[in-house]
Design brief:
The chain is built from 2 helices and 3 strands, in the order αβββα. It is of the alpha+beta class. Strands 1-2-3 form a 3-stranded antiparallel beta sheet, with helices on one face.
Length: 77
């Protein structure tokens, strides 16, 4: 008998959280600061073509920038 689990639950990583926050900011929805949890996020710049986003938290001042992965920018049909 094998002890290998039949299904493994995928654990979200910090990179997943960053990608989801940047994707939410690029889409124009309310994003949450990863450092303090505030929902008062200011989108400094967002480029729909490349997916580059810069966001800044108005509460703690944390700034986050990066490029949203393509699969998060695509609209499901």
């Amino acid at each position: 008998m094998s002890t290998v689990p039949l299904a493994a639950v995928v654990q979200p990583t910090l990179a997943d959280a960053v990608d989801e926050t940047l994707a939410a900011a690029l889409a124009g929805s309310q994003a949450t600061c990863l450092w303090c949890g505030a929902r008062d996020i200011d989108v400094r710049s967002a480029d729909l073509w490349s997916g580059a986003v810069v966001v800044r938290c108005r509460v703690c001042g944390a700034e986050l920038d990066g490029v949203v992965p393509r699969h998060l920018r695509e609209v499901p049909r």
